[in-house]
Amino acid sequence: MGVIIGLILICCVGLVTSEAIAIEQILSLCCQEGEEWGTQNRLCSSFNKSLELVPGELRGLCLSTIEICCSKQHKIYQCTAGQIAARQGLSCSLKGDHSGSEFYTDCCEACKIGLVVGSSSSKCSVEPFAFGSPWDEVYDGCCKDIKQDTFILNEDDENNLCSRFDNLCSQICENTVAGSYVCKCYPGYTLMDDRKTCAQITSEDENEIPSDNSLSDCRIGYEKDQRTGECVDVDECETGEAVCDAQLQVCMNVEGSYKCLDIQDVKCDAGFRYDRKTGKCEDIDECEDSSACDEGFQCVNIKGSYDCIAVVKNYPLPTPAPKKKIEACAPGFRRHNDQCVDIDECSADKYACDSNQVCTNEIGGFRCDCKIGFMLDQVTNACVDINECQINAHECLESQRCDNTIGSYTCIRLQSCGTGYTLNAETGNCDDDDECALGRHNCVAPYECFNTKGSFRCRQRSRYAPAVVVSGQSAQVTTSTTTTTTSTPRPVYYTQPPRTQPQYGPVYQPTNQGQQVEYNRYLGSCGIGFERSALGACVDIDECARGNVCRPNQRCVNGNGSYRCHDLLICPNGFTANNDGTECLDVDECLTGEAKCGPDQVCKNKRGGYVCLCPAGHIIGRNHRCEDVNECDLHKGKVCPQNSECINTVGSYRCDCKDGFRKSRPEDLICTDVDECNEIPGLCHQRCINYWGSYRCGCEPGYKLANDNRTCDDVDECEEYKSNNLCVGFCENTPGSYGCRCPPGYKLGHDGRSCIDIDECEPRDVCNGRNEICTNIRGSYRCTRINCPHEYEIDPDRSNRCRRTTKYCNPGDTECLRKPTSYSYNFITLVSNMPVPPSGRALFNLRGPAWYEAIDFDLKLLSVDAPPNVQPADQRFFSLNKLSNEVLLNLVKSIEGPQDIELELSMTVFKDGQPYGSNIAKLFLMISAYEF
């Protein structure tokens, strides 16, 4: 924000220049874009139009301007809608999450107050209220819009507040005896907490609806049918009573009311499609497609579906069974087994979310969440990779380099382990080598090895403790390895280190006084501060007796193996006596080396002491060592300008531009956006969208973004959506799209997906042989020759029937009567695996005379011709349904194609108990290889 304000100030200072005028014009155009986007009621943060014409350094300001102007337009729209609701007496509560919804409620309430005040002939001044913006303007406008009627009041009118003031209640206003009023609601509605607005009672509370016929014959949302006298639902969408935004919303009628749905949320049930002209889900007339039903069946359209009814000549068309009324499901649901079930959008559409998102199905919808390692960019609403290395959200060691990867990061070792350490392959850490245990030291007796981090030390095995002052005063004690200083005060000064008397075996004693001492073994040398006596024993050296071992102002005190120099003049800490012992002089610890400053510290002497100073950019930390000041953490967000990140350095810091930004010149402080799309050719495979600090690759329709988020892969619609039956025939994938193809004998329908059978028999000269009949089948045709049996001939009236040459039989000629009067040859074509309802599907009808005494029907399966991989049909696939003097042949199981089936259906008529005549219908079923 600081950078934006700074840029605005720059614009204001240089307003008279042509460059400033150009910036103002550009931002004005950006505001117009935001207002247009907001007018369409779109989410302001989802603005995705190209900003190619805007200079790269101004695109951030442009996006901010677009969002501000878009939000302003949302507020204006919601405020206007709130005023409309107030004038119509509707509730001021807005259901759902809408941008600027708080302005809807505020403007609605302010308008209602203005309407009441205006109705009372009072002044419309806002001074007594002073609500502020936008309440004052709305209140004033609604108050002044009320027509000021002239009242001639009588005593009754003064108490009749409901008639004097409109809009006191949203539905019913009743005066009270006390000169006030109460609000009531129509049946089916309940009074809200504001005691004036009515809301519809939900279906769960319908049992609590009071019945008050004195208020209205029908509830709100219903009207009386003049013909039946019953209350029927009013279609507010049809009558125009609904108040919906025609450009952004769709009116949907519900029982007793209506709903305003956003256009993008409208989903129609199966068998319906949304019509923008009517604003409704209109029924799809499947019967407009000539291939909806098989040949020999009539298509009957019904709401949301259709039915195929078998057509039999001279046989009345059966009335379709009444269908149960199908209610529309809410958005995000579909109908299944007469119930509304949730649509799993994540399974139905693999690309409902971006490749960097995880789709989670919810009841009635779904949501897209960023994968691990990604975060939502508030500007583009896209999931972008988190640079864990940049924000220090990794677990790499100091000896490792963090490399960012898409969705994660890796740790790369920078250097090998130093001397005294070995790399642990499992942990990646440098473990200390124990040189003492490994035998890699050079310590010899009387020293022992002591392991340290990265090294070792040789320390002496001590048998005696160092000399200790027993006078109660502190002393400076010095050994060969360590130094410990306590100097308050300093009464003793040693001129040499303390010494420890060594231990040896017993001294060899001579056998008599005059005998010369002889050493039978090696006794060793004495330690410092000791010397060997004439008898060979180590005895203490009295240094004080030798003189001049202490300074003139000190007194020498001999000790065992050592000596002490006591100051005659005791100086405080940080001071020492002069050579004469007459005065205390300041000790410059920085020069003498007594100061305990670290290697990275500067020693500064002070009277009586010293201080250790740290270099610039450092502070005294733990263990009195200088630690670097991390200015980036200490002054987070304040040391570097916008679009840059703070990098701490030893003793200082630097500001580096974030990825996607750079400085126009090295000396500049401001980081401007890098337009990667224009500067890097071929950055994206198809579409490149630059936005503030980065870019995003997109794909053309029919393509999807690959895992590298750069290249585009073709979507194989035929494979991805094969369960959706994109094509009735064969689906062929093409780059960026797909196409439908039909097998031979079919042609592609006007919708580009249906396969319509070609009727090869339509030309009359297809089958030219004698007694040949052309039969069209799905995808082909057959020329079938009818060969009449002996003593039968082709019926001139019916080319598919053979009649008996002997038309009449002599009385008592039983053999003649048993011969069929005619043979009919009937050809029926079916698609493979044609759906069969539980009640069966009618195939053929055979009817006898009305004067019959008895009729017998019989069905025989004569032959079946099917390839080895297809299940042949048998007689169990068919059933006979006898009805009075006729019979219906039904198909009760689906037949797989291709295969040919020959059936024989016979009918014998009896009179006086004897056969009186018969007919035979030969049925040739031709099952195609396709299911369409």
Would you write up a description of this structure?
Residues 158-199, 342-380, 586-627, 628-667, 673-713, 714-756 form the EGF-like domain. Residues 480-504 are annotated as: Disordered. Pfam families: cEGF, EGF_CA, Fibulin_C, FXa_inhibition. By secondary structure, this protein is α+β, with helices and mostly antiparallel strands. Among the domains are: 1-149, no CATH class; 326-387, no CATH class; 472-500 and 526-582, no CATH class; 722-757, Laminin; 772-927, Immunoglobulin-like, CATH 2.60.40.60. Helices cover 15% and strands 31% of the residues. It has 16 helices and 60 strands. The strands form 27 sheets. The chain has a 6-stranded mixed beta sheet. Helix 2 crosses helix 3, helix 3 (59-87) packs parallel to helix 4 (101-119) and helix 4 (101-119) runs parallel beside helix 5 (135-145). The protein starts with a helix and ends in a 5-residue tail after the last strand.
Kindly summarize this structure in a few lines.
Its main location: secreted. With 932 residues, the chain is α+β, with helices and mostly antiparallel strands.
* Annotated CATH architecture of the domain at 772-927: Sandwich
How much of the residues is beta strand, in percent?
Answer: 25-35%
Spatial sequence of strands, sheet with the most strands: 52-53-54-60-59-56
Q: Please mark out the parts with pLDDT under 50 across 5 or more consecutive residues, or reply none.
A: 1-20, 147-157, 203-216, 312-326, 463-523
Helix content: 10-25%
Mean pLDDT: 76
Total of DSSP H or I helical runs spanning 4+ residues: 16
- CATH names the topology of the domain at 772-927 as Immunoglobulin-like
How many DSSP E strands? 60
Broad structural category: alpha+beta
